[in-house]
Amino acid sequence: MSKNPITTPDFFGYGDLLPEDERAELARIREYLETAAKPLADANWEKGEFPPEAVATFAKLRLADYSYPEYGDGRTRSPLFSGFLSLELNRVDPSLAVFSGVHTGLAMGSIYGGGDQEQRDRWLPAMAAMDTIGAFALTEPEGGSDVAGGMRTTARREGGEWVLNGAKRWIGNGTFADHIVVWARDVADGVVKGFVVDKGTPGFTATKIEGKIALRIVQNADITLDEVRVPEANRLQNVNGFRDTARVLARTRGGVAWQALGVAVRAYELAREYAVTREQFGKPIGGFQMIQDLLVRMLGEVTSIFGLVVRLNQLVAEDRCRADQAALAKAVATTKMRQVVAWARELFGGNGIVLDYEVAKFFADAEAIYSFEGSREMNTLIVGRAITGHSAFA
Length: 394
What we know:
Blueprint: H1 20-44, H2 53-59, H3 64-67, H4 79-92, H5 94-114, H6 117-128, E1 134-137, H7 147-150, E2 154-158, E3 161-171, E4 179-186, E5 192-198, E6 204-208, E7 221-231, H8 242-277, E8 279-280, E9 283-284, H9 289-317, H10 323-347, H11 359-371, H12 376-388
Parallel strand pairs: 1-4, 2-4
Antiparallel strand pairs: 2-3, 3-7, 4-5, 6-7, 8-9
Helix pairs in contact: 1-4, 4-5, 4-8, 5-6, 5-8, 8-9, 8-10, 8-11, 9-10, 10-11, 10-12
GO molecular function, one term: glutaryl-CoA dehydrogenase activity
Pfam families: Acyl-CoA_dh_1 (PF00441), Acyl-CoA_dh_M (PF02770), Acyl-CoA_dh_N (PF02771)
Family: Belongs to the acyl-CoA dehydrogenase family.
């Protein structure tokens, strides 16, 4: 046996592309997440509950500072750093990473990109500190992939107010968020607009979706809007149609590819460690050819995801990332992630289906990441249109 086996899943050293100070910061974040966030995930995943103390845990990291430096410490980090940060969050627990991503990426991102300066200054400082929590309400019970053209939630202008009616589904953080960004179609002109609805507004109800097999800590909600009145001041002033919603999604879609990498990395780490410690027939199973074959297949897929997402973030840094490139990254990375977690669960044998060995959680959570932010099929059609010039959307 080699005395110095290679333990890192970053086999080609993509992390070395980061400057030294950012690598040190990521190491600090990883250590903190392992000690402060992972125990919360381990204690609450099976119960399907969100630990309230997770808010304070994540608030200490000031994650929003990385995306919105003017509302934080003012320092800027590279787009590549933001990708590796997502990897670290998802490596610890995808559910808690989704909680953070919905708040920081989708809710704050909608206000930052769609709101005017007054609205940014009104909401974002408290959200950056996680004194208030955000949610993003786009998907509907009858409209997932086709919500752009088939949105049924409506907005009606009455004087200085807007009246919202409709329903939303799968809304992360929806049961406890303070500010919910709701997308609705204006009945007067048919244009999709964005509104910030505050928790407790009359006519707004959020009901937890039960019975999930993935991302169990995430509090997804069914939301109903029954004559919900919001002031004109809560309409996102710089949203002028669904294309502005799509811009928010385009930014986060590439982030899902990094989520997939984080899950695949953790599945590989768990499988490699199990292989070198679990003994059968008088020696570690890592000494058997078929186990090594599984591990190398997994490492190969992890490495290919690394290459894809690192290049994607380089394009982001150059302001040259296209929507079809983000769509390809999401579709390919999540497909490869799904294969990696399946091989990891296989390597564990019967132990792979119990939470004691952790891999079962990542195996289940991967299904949600594979499906959200545009299914593989929808992202495939986006790329297919780009490379053929023909739209195959129904």
